[in-house]
Amino acid sequence: MPGPVMPETAPSENPVLVTGGTGYVGGHLVATLLERGYRVRATVRDAGRADAVGHLVRVAGVDPGDRLETVVTSLDVDAGWAEALAGVSVVHHVASPFLSVPPERADEVIVPAVEGTLRVLRHARDAGAAQVVLTSSFAAVGYGPLAARPDERPYDERDWTDLDHPNDPYIRSKVLAERAAWDFVAEQDTGARTPLGLTVLNPTGIFGPVLGGRLSTSVGAVGAMLTGDLATLPRMRFGVVDVRDVAEAHVRAMTTPAAVGERILLTSGDVVTWGWVIELLRRELGAEITTVEQPAVGELSPLAISNDKARRLLGMSFRPAQTTLLDTARSLAPAL
What we know:
Keywords: Oxidoreductase. It holds the Pfam family Epimerase. Residues 16-260 form the NAD-dependent epimerase/dehydratase domain. The longest helix has 20 residues, at 107-126. This protein has helices spanning 24-35, 50-59, 81-85, 107-126, 169-186, 217-227, 243-254, 274-285, 308-314, 321-332; strands at residues 16-19, 40-44, 68-72, 90-93, 131-135, 197-203, 205-207, 232-233, 237-242, 263-266, 271-273, 292-293. The strands form 3 sheets. It has a 7-stranded parallel sheet with strand order 3-2-1-4-5-6-10, with helices on both faces. The chain is built from 10 helices and 12 strands. Helices cover 35% and strands 15% of the residues. It has one domain (16-208, 240-269, 304-318): Rossmann fold (3-Layer(aba) Sandwich). The chain is an alpha/beta fold.
């Protein structure tokens, strides 16, 4: 079998594909790629959103010139993917359904996530792409009973969320979609075709400046705090990573041959609570926040998440959580 084609190590005339170009991560990634000189093709779900990608890029301070194009397609159909992948060697699969549904309707989240990921991989393979860089999540890494972990080390890329634990459908969808992706590349029957390489990035909670009106759930919580539309938030610990660092990691993953076949956690290294976020915004920005953190039921479990692999393999350095959360709030409420 032929060896894998190396990923893009420098801009070329071939476009790089970004799925979900109007999303929170997608918009930042498109802007970062364009800023580095790459030609970018972004997918959008409907033609009416095609101009939105360019708008997000300009908000990020990047002039796309003639290096940005859009293709209309969706994770739930095959139509449009051949056009989207024509001449593409690297695919950044960022788009992902995020629906809040009752447990009895879990398949409404899980099935689109798994089938959408496999659809992108299948079409990328058939088009002769060299690499897919997939945005997964810490949701696929660190949810489940702590007793199942062998020791008190920080979570790292060896860990997987326990599918036997009653996690919500979104968390389960992230685990199943990522496992399906790894199974797909492991089971490729390519014959004479060059095998498709896969790199998976697992960010913790993504925050940072917004470029448009479509907010992620995490960023939306910060926005609701600032507007007074959120009464309470749960007492919990979570990791933080800046959306700009996630975009940077995607670019480095496609320019680092050793990243092919690797799973890489993305996190600042800081672990925070919503109470910490509330006090930070009050103290540093003078924000009048009425949101309160719910009392914890017992002691909060300890949480530590390693970013050693991202630093070592991709040469990443991460913005601290304080910088990221303050930039998030300022982008949502410029008067602060």
